[in-house]
From TrEMBL:
Residues 491-768 form the Protein kinase domain. Residues 335-411 form the Apple domain. It holds the Pfam family PAN_2. It comes from Musa balbisiana. This is Receptor-like serine/threonine-protein kinase. Its main location: membrane. Belongs to the protein kinase superfamily. Ser/Thr protein kinase family. The keyword Transmembrane helix applies. Residues 24-144 form the Bulb-type lectin domain. Residues 1-18 form the signal peptide. InterPro entries: Bulb-type_lectin_dom, Bulb-type_lectin_dom_sf, EGF, Kinase-like_dom_sf, Pan_app, Prot_kinase_dom, S_locus_glycoprot_dom, Ser-Thr/Tyr_kinase_cat_dom. Its EC number is 2.7.11.1.
Length: 801
């Protein structure tokens, strides 16, 4: 009887919804929500309803983006108690309790609220599900207080002391199982509040304390044109929140099942989620990777070093790059005579055991630390907050740009020896930096000349530079800021095509109708001015149908921008790694792309006026035009070689893990052959549709190269092919291509072919191919963090020891 009644109510309410045309955003106690019914927020952005992830037979109540493809889920109610039957009902009781019921009217989830009059459930356009009641109306419960794995603008991550709320994210178990996974993202209010990622109860990442501008550990995000972050601390609550500067741009942050927090921004132009930033991003983001009193840097190798005045606790392990034991003090302290060593541009150490005093100057902070014998370091956070550390300094990293200053307590004798050593150090530093500085100076002078001349003859600019020993001319149109602003709709957020390490890339349309891509160097970009100049100087001279064409640049005040031709089909990675798009690439198309890239690279290595090593070849740096012709892009890290030179060495290894050859990643040695290695990786990725830096066989930690090598040895090459090309292809061509790929990724650089040989091998059936040897780097070492330097090999560094 009551069941029939219920169905009548359901049918009636469905009728009401249908009559309105659109389901509303509000649920009252008289109209439950069932099965296929949904609530839609007033602006149509979010939808609440029942879903079943993947192909599972289990159902959940959740909120998702209504209009975005794949409708990403932002919140799940019954993570632990899925609905398994065919009947699903969300009922708001008359006294204000929200119940999730199955067929047998079992309560699977509820908000545990009660005692309210006139309850009302409403889905807002911010994605918050709000239960209100009473007169005057008050909030009984809201989904923003109980986040799942997604952090939305306006949501607070942190603690509300009075309401006893700890709002934090918890990852899904897997993409088809929303139950709580191993990772969480939340705030630890002890000492100075910081946001952490935890795996179970151990920390894997922290942001560093808030310093007024942003988190100490992410100086690259302190200013950006897309998102703004806020940190609030008072006696009632402490939290962190963010907003999108353009309210109509959708963004979210998600902690995924492997513990990576990604901040995603929806791009309406390219209809996809762009990764705005993610953590942990590099090995130094990994919590305490260098142990206590160690510091981490991504720009030198080895990346772990002891703080000044400290020495490895277990020197043997340390030499083997096993750093977790950390470092110990070389000379013990004597409270009355100690001093401080300033360490600049760092992510401040873990503050969970630190003490703070507000309203202090740097000198007052120093005195405070000096007077207290158990104080080991101090720093002034923001304008006036003095932080003092009383225990080991954990998880420090060094930045090239940005970061805070930390003052470390050291014994007087230790400071003396640093002072007397610094003479040598400076001389060493000069020896290393003079060549860099002088080339920078030359570039600067060049740019100045260039700017001067520009005033005289507007439009075209000419200037002379010397690179190596050759004199070369630079001829490049200079765009003015006004026309770039007009082209990109004043750098509108929705024109952003992607965001790289240097800053955002915008899509624009010039006054003459040409579509362009504008690469805007962000002011506090870590890859700085010199990469920009390298790119301008290099690419202006290079012209080839398989290289992206630079149309001009724009330099005004602090702004530096490069203007490229716009590539309609974005980049190669958007095709080969995307299940839907990859079917657009048949065998012939893929082979054409491979050969195109090979030709472009051959031009760089041998045929251009300068001999150029790209150093960062990867699928995302290959752009595709409207006819799917590949164009090599991103010359920010490229190097030129003089005639006769075949190899270079750098202590600053730049590039992308998974694409770097062993001799480059571990020894900083780069040559044409390190580009050939990256090309080989890319070739195998194009054939397989799989990324190299992902573990393919978890038990053996084998990556794509290892997988390809195994299949080759067993004569099962065709199994590597991406599914969508499994129909029409000439088998001999596939074998040949596969073999060339393996030849390119061989461990020994001298075994690898040159690009000239590669082009020949790919385009002629009659050339005999040698048998490949074992590839380099065919096991991945870490799943995240992507550490490229294996511990068995010690690098001889340029830096003196
Ligand atoms: C819900 O939708 C599915 C698919 O559209 C349909 O098969 C099912 O019958 C619907 N259920 C109800 C109760 O309308
Ligand atoms: C669901 O199952 C169908 C058919 O069994 C399959 O084609 C599809 O890929 C599956 N989807 C997911 C997300 O697993
Ligand atoms: C559905 O869930 C209920 C309660 O959680 C459980 O008792 C029942 O066995 C489940 N039925 C199926 C078919 O899994
Ligand atoms: C749903 O709520 C209404 C109003 O409070 C109540 O009459 C009805 O019995 C509830 N249904 C179930 C299945 O609990
Ligand atoms: C409601 O109370 C039950 C039992 O105490 C608890 O398991 C559940 O997590 C609570 N629900 C919410 C949304 O807090
Ligand atoms: C509901 O409200 C009444 C009156 O305000 C109060 O006496 C009662 O304890 C409340 N019950 C709950 C469960 O809060
Ligand atoms: C979570 O941790 C457990 C135990 O360490 C492990 O077995 C499981 O694979 C982990 N799950 C994920 C998704 O990493
Ligand atoms: C600390 O320094 C003072 C003054 O130089 C000296 O008298 C004292 O012996 C030192 N103490 C230790 C433990 O070295
Ligand atoms: C903070 O102190 C506790 C207890 O002494 C210790 O276990 C923990 O490692 C310390 N944390 C840091 C970051 O130093
Ligand atoms: C900070 O300290 C100065 C002097 O010590 C005092 O005049 C000022 O009022 C203080 N400000 C706050 C906000 O406490
Ligand atoms: C040093 O500072 C800490 C934290 O402020 C405090 O707990 C401790 O008592 C101080 N020690 C001395 C000797 O003043
Ligand atoms: C905000 O974004 C929307 C759509 O993405 C766009 O139409 C609008 O012009 C942008 N507003 C500003 C001020 O950039």
């Amino acid at each position: 009887m009551s069941i029939t009644k219920l169905w009548i109510v359901l049918a009636l309410s469905a009728g009401v919804l249908a009559a309105h045309g659109q389901p509303g955003d509000t649920l009252t106690s008289s109209t439950p929500l069932s099965d296929n019914q949904t609530l839609t927020s007033a602006g149509g952005i979010f939808e609440l309803g029942f879903f079943s992830p993947g192909n599972s037979s289990e159902w959940y109540l959740g909120i998702w983006y209504k209009e975005i493809p794949d409708q990403p889920i932002v919140w799940v109610a019954n993570r632990d108690t899925p609905l398994n039957g065919s009947v699903r009902i969300l009922n708001l009781t008359a006294d204000g309790n929200l119940l999730l019921l199955n067929k047998d009217a079992n309560i699977l989830w509820s908000t545990n609220t009660s005692n309210a009059t006139y309850p009302l459930l409403q889905l807002s356009d911010s994605g918050n599900l709000i239960l209100t009641g009473g007169i005057p109306k008050s909030i009984l419960w809201q989904s923003f207080d109980h986040p799942s794995d997604t952090f939305l603008p306006g949501m607070k991550i942190g603690l509300d002391f009075a309401a006893k709320l700890d709002r934090h994210l918890i990852s899904w178990k897997s993409s088809s199982d929303p139950s709580p996974g191993n990772y969480s993202y939340g705030m630890d209010p002890h000492g100075v509040p910081e946001v952490y990622i935890w795996e179970g109860s151990s920390r894997t990442f922290r942001t560093g304390p808030w310093n007024g501008k942003g988190w100490s550990g992410r100086p690259d995000m302190w200013t950006n044109g897309v998102l703004r972050f806020h940190f609030v601390m008072n006696q009632h609550e402490v939290y962190y929140t963010f907003e999108s500067l353009n309210k109509s741009v959708l963004c979210r942050a998600v902690i995924d099942e492997s513990g990576v927090l990604q901040r995603l921004v929806w791009s309406t132009t390219s209809t996809r989620w762009d990764i705005f930033w993610l953590v942990p991003e590099d090995p130094c983001d990994q919590y305490a990777t260098c142990g206590a009193n160690g510091m981490c840097t991504t720009t030198y190798s080895p990346r772990c070093q002891c703080l000044q005045g400290f020495t490895p606790k277990s020197p043997k392990d340390w030499d083997l790059r096993e750093n977790s034991d950390g470092c110990v003090r070389r000379t013990s302290l004597n409270c009355s005579t100690d001093g401080f060593f300033p360490l600049q541009k760092v992510k401040l150490p873990d503050t969970s055991n630190a003490s703070t005093e507000s309203n202090k100057t740097l000198n007052e902070c120093r005195d405070l630390c000096l007077k207290n014998c158990s104080c080991l370091a101090y720093a002034l956070n923001g304008e006036s907050m003095c932080i003092t550390w009383l225990s080991d300094l954990v998880d420090i990293r060094i930045f090239i740009d940005g970061g805070d200053d930390l003052y470390i307590r050291l014994a007087d004798s230790e400071l003396d020896s640093i002072r007397s050593n610094s003479g040598n150090k400076i001389r060493l530093a000069i020896a290393v930096t003079i060549p860099v500085l002088s080339s920078l100076l030359l570039l600067c002078v060049g740019l100045l000349l260039w700017l001067k001349r520009r005033r005289r003859n507007h439009g075209k600019v000419m200037s002379s530079h010397s690179i190596g020993s050759k004199e070369s001319e630079l001829e490049l149109p200079l765009f003015d800021m006004r026309s770039i602003k007009a082209a990109t709709n004043d750098f509108s957020v929705d024109k952003i095509l992607g965001v790289g390490g240097f800053g955002p890339v915008y899509k624009g349309q010039l006054e003459d109708g040409r579509e362009v891509a504008v690469k805007r160097l962000s002011k506090n970009s870590i890859q700085g001015i010199d990469e920009f100049k390298t790119e301008v100087l290099l690419i202006a001279k290079l012209q080839h149908r398989n290289l992206v064409r630079l149309l001009g640049c724009c330099i005004e005040d602090e702004e530096r921008m490069l203007i490229y031709e716009y590539m309609q089909n974005t980049s190669l990675d958007a095709f080969i790694f995307d299940r839907r798009k990859s079917s657009l690439l048949n065998w012939q198309k893929r082979l054409d792309i491979i050969i195109g890239i090979a030709r472009g690279l051959l031009y760089l290595h041998q045929d251009s006026r300068l001999r150029v090593i790209h150093r960062d070849l990867k699928a995302s740096n290959i752009l595709l035009d409207h006819e799917m012709n590949p164009k090599i892009s991103d010359f920010g890290t490229a190097r030129t070689f003089r005639a006769g030179q075949t190899e270079g060495n750098t202590k600053r290894v730049v590039g992308t893990c998974g694409y770097m050859s062993p001799e480059y990643a571990m020894g900083g040695l780069f040559s044409e052959k390190s580009d050939v290695f990256s090309f080989g990786v890319m070739l195998l990725e194009i054939l397989s549709g799989k990324k190299n830096n992902v573990v393919l066989q978890a038990d053996q930690r084998i990556n794509l190269l290892g997988h390809a090598w195994m299949l080759w040895k067993q004569g099962r090459c065709l199994e590597l092919l991406e599914e969508s090309i499994s129909h029409s292809y000439p088998v001999s061509e596939v074998f040949r291509c596969f073999q060339v790929g393996l030849l390119c990724v061989q461990e020994g650089s001298e075994d690898r072919p040159t690009m000239g040989e590669v082009v020949l091998m790919l385009s002629s059936e009659s050339v005999m191919l040698p048998q490949p040897n074992r590839p380099g780097f065919y096991v991945t070492r870490t799943s995240i963090g992507e550490d490229c330097s294996p511990s068995e090999i010690t690098i001889t560094e340029l830096e003196g020891r």
